[in-house]
């Protein structure tokens, strides 16, 4: 059912999926869905009432951020809402979207859909009048006389997710300027204040790994299950908007550059191997090794690219995974390329980092090492450029650097 702004419809279901959708393409900003659980005051009760990519599950279990899916040029970011589990104090659940790297005037086909568990569409609202807004309240689920309804809202903000969240009472973790120096005069001792609970502000930024902070726990970011997509993005110049969620290959059509995303894996039963396009060793997602390369894109297509996926539902079987990239053809080293890596768990915050500048004749780079620490997968930024010795393949070079101990034979695409 397509709705006009301000219209409302009943929601005759105990559980629903709310999909924020749009069409992607060159220059289209990424979009992130979020939900705010509001009390009768019209504001959140605490910072825990915001559900989004960095806080993927509400404490009540009623609302979950399930992540993005792309198909045929369309992308959806999904929220799962168990209406039967929503706490009585929550009167409204606001469904919002924020644009990353641009405004909604550049996002075609923006819409929100409410589906029942069988996939039947209960409500749909298409936003067609966006211009400079960087955040939108697309709709809301709300209680009315003991039942749930959905209202199409379409209210825009030019202050991004941070401004929208702040308006609803969320405390946002933003860099603060250092206080001006002051001179303190001696004072008489004062009674110690009563201890107060400390509330951590909500961090809206995506997780960025650096040399100073190179590791992150996937469990602490909500990435404990589902599929985790690994993308590589590069260009000859740094692109505005920081690290992206797609594999951008604008450089390839002009230069014939072919970079291959690969992974060495070791399972807890001692099984070792490689996932790569060479030799058609694409792996498998739902059986060993639980790592899969979707395909080998040698066309330089911007929208498709290569995706490496890891099945976190079988993380207990994984001992370690090394993500690396090789130059198959088109260049003699990584020098001059600005590259970034993005790991996107289905149920957690995206983890991204930029590679260091390459000043070596390197044709292989270790990107990230994922290791199992007591059932928690920890991602470590490597950004390590390696130079193969004469007659030694890039794959064997990575193996030797990280002690995988595998036997290698020549392979081709």
Describe the fold and architecture:
The protein is mainly β and 413 residues long. It has two domains: 166 residues, Sandwich (Lipoxygenase-1), CATH 2.60.60.30; 196 residues, sav2460 like domains (Lipoxygenase-1). It is 5% helix and 40% strand. It contains three helices and 25 strands. The strands form four sheets. Strands 13-23-22-15-20-19-18 form a seven-stranded mixed β-sheet, with no helix packed on it. It has a six-stranded mixed β-sheet with strand order 1-10-9-3-7-6, with no helix packed on it. It has a six-stranded antiparallel β-sheet with strand order 2-12-11-8-4-5. Strand 16 and strand 17 form a beta hairpin. The longest helix is centred in the C-terminal third of the chain and has 9 residues. The radius of gyration is 24 Å and the shape is elongated. About 13% of the residues have low confidence.
Largest pleated sheet: 7 strands, mixed
- Alpha-beta classification: mainly beta
Give average pLDDT, whole number: 83
CATH class of the largest domain, please?
Mainly Beta
Any low-confidence stretches, pLDDT <50, length ≥5? 175-198, 236-254, 297-305
Q: What is the topology, as strand order, of the major beta sheet?
A: 13-23-22-15-20-19-18
Radius of gyration: 24 Å
Number of domains: 2
**Gross geometry:** elongated
CA-to-CA gap between the ends? 48 Å
Beta fraction of the residues? 35-45%
Kindly state the percentage of residues in helix: under 10%
What is the level-2 CATH architecture name of the largest domain? Sandwich
Pfam families: TerD
Protein name: TerD family protein
Region (Disordered): 174-200
Family: Belongs to the CAPAB/TerDEXZ family.
């Amino acid at each position: 059912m397509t709705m006009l702004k301000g219209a409302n419809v009943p929601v005759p279901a105990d559980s629903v999926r709310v999909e924020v959708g749009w069409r992607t393409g060159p220059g289209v900003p990424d979009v992130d869905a979020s939900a705010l659980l509001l009390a009768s005051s019209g504001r959140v009760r605490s910072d825990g009432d915001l559900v989004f990519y960095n806080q993927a599950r509400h404490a009540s279990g009623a609302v979950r951020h399930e992540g993005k899916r792309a198909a045929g040029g369309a992308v959806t970011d999904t929220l799962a809402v168990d209406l039967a589990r929503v706490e009585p104090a929550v009167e409204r659940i606001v469904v919002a979207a924020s644009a990353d790297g641009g405004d909604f005037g550049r996002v075609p086909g923006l819409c929100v859909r409410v589906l029942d568990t069988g996939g039947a569409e209960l409500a749909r609202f298409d936003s067609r009048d966006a211009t400079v807004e960087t955040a939108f309240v697309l709709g809301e689920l709300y209680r009315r006389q003991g039942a749930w309804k959905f209202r199409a809202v379409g209210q825009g903000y030019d202050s991004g997710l941070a401004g929208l969240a702040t308006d609803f009472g969320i405390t946002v973790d933003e860099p603060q300027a250092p206080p001006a120096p002051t001179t303190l005069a001696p004072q008489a001792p004062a009674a110690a204040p009563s201890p107060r609970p400390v509330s951590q502000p909500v961090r809206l930024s995506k997780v960025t790994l650096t040399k100073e902070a190179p590791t992150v726990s996937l469990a602490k970011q909500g990435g404990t299950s589902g599929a985790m997509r690994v993308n590589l993005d590069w260009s000859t110049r740094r692109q505005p908007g920081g690290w992206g969620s797609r594999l951008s290959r604008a450089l390839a059509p002009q230069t014939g550059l072919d970079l291959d995303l690969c992974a060495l894996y070791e399972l807890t039963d001692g099984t070792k191997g490689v996932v790569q396009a060479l030799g058609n060793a694409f792996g498998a997602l739902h059986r060993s090794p639980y790592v899969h390369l979707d395909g080998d894109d040698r066309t330089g297509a911007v929208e498709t690219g290569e995706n490496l996926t890891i099945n976190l539902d079988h993380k207990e079987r994984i001992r370690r995974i090394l993500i690396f990239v090789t130059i198959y053809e088109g260049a003699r080293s990584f020098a001059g390329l600005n590259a970034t890596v993005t790991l996107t768990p289905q149920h957690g915050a995206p983890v991204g980092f930029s590679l260091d500048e390459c000043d070596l004749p390197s044709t292989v780079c270790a990107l990230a090492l994922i290791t199992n620490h007591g059932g928690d997968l920890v991602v470590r930024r490597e950004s390590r450029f390696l130079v193969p010795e004469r007659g030694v393949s890039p794959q064997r070079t990575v193996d030797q650097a990280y002690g995988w101990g595998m036997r290698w034979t020549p392979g081709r695409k």
